[in-house]
Amino acid sequence: MFAKYLEQYEIGETWTSKGRTITEADLVNFSSFSGDWFPLHTDKEYAAKTSFKQRIAHGMSVLSIATGLILLEPGIVEAFYGMDHVRFTNPTFIGDTLHLEMSVCNIQEKDNGKGIVSTEMEIKKQTGETVAVAVVKMLVNKSKG
């Protein structure tokens, strides 16, 4: 998605990522890294008694994995600018395969040959259900030519 210079984007253009399957190791590693050992993510017996009936991936891990699925071209992308309107709409379970569907919703020119490309991002699983939504913003360079 972010492999073009600022002036090459158009409002409404779309992009779909490759898939990535969530594993038990993802939950354990994210818990270790973040310190978030909430039992809904880490305790099979606890999670079985919840409305989800099983462990679910941390919402923040889903967002982190999503950022790894975004195509980012060095030299074109200056930096991650931020996220707005984040919502988790369905659970992500161990074994779910996630992909992104993104659509350009705003282009804002900034100083110094850069601008912000905003995209509406849906994180979807193999069933077609959306598990999270957000507006993702990248600081993107203009071409030098």
Automatic annotation (TrEMBL):
Residues in the signal sequence: none
Pfam families: MaoC_dehydratas
Xref: SUPFAM superfamilies: Thioesterase/thiol ester dehydrase-isomerase
Record field: transmembrane: none
Domain MaoC-like: from-to ranges: 11-119
Superkingdom of the organism of origin: Bacteria
Protein name, UniProt field: MaoC/PaaZ C-terminal domain-containing protein
Organism of this sequence: Scopulibacillus cellulosilyticus
Lineage, broadest ranks: Bacteria, Bacillati, Bacillota, Bacilli, Bacillales
